[in-house]
Amino acid sequence: MPAADRAAGRRALLLDAGLQLLGTQGLAGTTVRGLCAEAQLNARYFYESFPDLDSLVVAVFDRVVADLREAVDAAVAAAGPDPVARIRATVASTAEFVDSDRRRARVLYVEGRGHERLQRRRAESSSLIAGLVAAEAAGREPGAAHRIVAAFLVGGFSELLTRWLDGDIPVDRDQLVHAATELFLALGRAGGRLADAAAAAAPTRR
């Protein structure tokens, strides 16, 4: 096997180990020594792929976000052109993604709150997701009103999923998806009203 492929394989093992430790023990329980033990690699191979522990943590987060985006994109594409079906597919695929592997939820929604670099990454990722939701709700390039609603939805949905996975909201996944979809649709309509009001209040060019 070429050296580059072997290095890529070791990096993948370290990312798998990072998901395991971050998703079960959190940031406090994630160390270079622990990662290498989990991946069954010598410590020198860690520094072959990552300059420091923070870089590994951010890389794990980015990989989980990329996997989520892939799952959501596939579900939305399969849902067809109907906007309601597409919103439901977004909600359902996200809920399934974190419910099927609770480590992902901890990485996405919990651990980033106390880590400066990860918090910045979470903010960037949330802005991207909010933009996608806004575009879906608006059916065109979203304006400020749709972006406000989308940001509100993304933050609220993350909190909802966290509370549900913790058992604070005792409903099954289908009930959760139905309720969240209705909220997405209701707030999407609210965004449309806000956008119309803003357009009506804007000064008319002569």
Automatic annotation (TrEMBL):
Keywords: DNA-binding. Coiled coil: none annotated. The keyword DNA-binding applies. Pfam families: TetR_N (PF00440). Residues 8-68 form the HTH tetR-type domain. Residues 31-50 bind DNA. InterPro entries: Homeodomain-like_sf, HTH-type_TetR-like_transc_reg, HTH_TetR, Tet_transcr_reg_TetR-rel_C_sf. The keyword DNA-binding applies. PANTHER family: HTH-TYPE TRANSCRIPTIONAL REGULATOR PKSA, HTH-TYPE TRANSCRIPTIONAL REGULATOR RUTR. This is TetR/AcrR family transcriptional regulator. It comes from Pseudonocardia yuanmonensis.
